[in-house]
Design brief:
2 domains; Nuclear Transport Factor 2, Chain: A; about 180 residues; alpha+beta; single chain
Length: about 180
């Protein structure tokens, strides 16, 4: 059983090291507000005939007005959290988020005013919120950094102890990766 435990522990240690290092990085980015994916959107190719800086503000206003009119027809007198325009292929989408628990998001074809989707936002599962520390808010993010750092330290020191014991066994002329 000890040998099985050691073989499994090597695979688990590699996995835990990867998960803990990336988890600490993600938690630090979340705490500092850095967005690692922010540069990905800037490299997107331009769509011919789509949204461009050459369009006049009145054209953008007309697209946004059509979007808001479609949302107003669907949900009268509702407050709006966000409203934005986005290209999806050749379709200009107006995306409107309404407050609530969970929030509601409507996607409208901004050129025709047709509602494409009307969905409730989904919260992360309870398990994911516990795993990420989000269930505790900002203190949970700090705890996530601490327990991720502890896993990194435990993985490194565990490897150090193992290789020290292995070196001693080799000096004593005892062969074998595990004992």
């Amino acid at each position: 059983m000890r040998q099985y435990h050691r073989w499994v522990s090597i695979l688990a240690a590699i996995f835990l090291l990867i998960v803990s290092v990336t988890g600490v990085i993600l938690q630090v980015q979340k705490l500092t507000g850095d967005d690692a994916d922010a540069g990905d959107h800037a490299a997107a190719p331009a769509v011919v005939g789509g949204l461009t800086t050459a369009m006049s503000p009145t054209e953008y206003a007309a697209l946004l007005a059509r979007t808001l009119n479609a949302v107003r027809a669907r949900v009268p007198n509702s407050p709006v959290t966000t409203a934005s325009l986005k290209m999806d292929g050749s379709v200009v989408q107006g995306i409107v988020t309404l407050p609530g628990d969970p929030p509601r998001q409507l996607v409208v074809d901004a050129r025709s005013g047709r509602v494409l989707s009307d969905e409730r936002g989904e919260h992360d599962s309870l398990i994911m919120r516990i795993h990420s520390g989000a269930i505790l808010g900002d203190p949970g993010v700090v705890l996530g950094i601490l327990w991720g750092s502890a896993l990194v330290i435990l993985s490194i020191t565990g490897g150090w102890v193992y290789f020290d014991m292995y070196r001693r066994r080799r000096k004593a002329a005892k062969r074998g990766l595990f004992w």
